[in-house]
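User: I'm preparing a small set of examples for a lab meeting where we compare how different chains pack in three dimensions. I only have the primary sequence for this one, and I'd like the structure in token form so I can line it up with the others. Please keep the answer compact; I'll paste it straight into my notes.
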Amino acid sequence: MSTAADGTGLTESQLTHQLTELGIHEGGVLLVHSSLRSLGKVEGGAATVLRALRRALGPDGTVVVPAFTSDNSSTSTAHMERVRGLSDEARAAFRDNMPPFDPATTPSTDVGILAETTRLHPHSLRSAHPQTSFAALGPHAAKITADHHPDCLLGESSPLARLYELGAQILLLGVGFNRCTAFHLGEYRVDSPPHRSYRCVVRRDGRRQWWEYDDVALDDSDFGELGAEFEGAGLGAAVRVSGVVGAARCRAVRFVDAVDFAQRWIPEHRVVGR
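Assistant: Understood. Below is the structure token output for the 274-residue chain.
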């Protein structure tokens, strides 16, 4: 079912029921990766979907979304695409005019309208990493978003580790495992993961500046394959697949299971530590 019976679009009540049927439960902590378009027509758009998620989670539940700023970098794939074909002079001018990250105002990029709607909620909290921040709403929001170290993209000093500790769920709402950021925490937890340099724009002591740091070399190019094997690994209730949230095929996954599986899978399928 992709629209209401009268053709006006899915309602908050319908979405809440479908999310509950998928296994989203009251009091839970839920990391959401989403494609709003995949749901079909929704009355009120992303704001309605967010209300439905919060209603399914109840007053003691917490919703979390990526609020990434992948274009705030000179080392990211997104930035490389933006400056591709520019002259050296034009490329330098573009970088000179890139604004520094501000957790209060910098929009998220490439994570979807639902994530940005969550970030903009007046009660939302956002972690402070200049490239891989997360936004959260609910009782656990402060714990999840606090102390996101600027030199730790998605590791032990990031919201992903807090979500692991809290026994969170992951909701893939119309997107595939290639968008499952929990797998990145598994990258950090293998023995001797490879590292690389990252560079982004920050504001320190009131001054705009470029900042370079070393961290684990993140690679999501095989997450689709990783996810397919995780889904077929016979983990029982760890993965529940349903197509009843609007028109979207969705998965509800236990966070701990996803990370632990990735930690085992990566050394067997990648050359690690080189």
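A couple of notes for your slides: The radius of gyration is 19 Å. Strands lie at 29-34, 62-66, 125-126, 134-137, 169-173, 195-204, 207-216, 239-245, 248-254.

User: Perfect, thanks.
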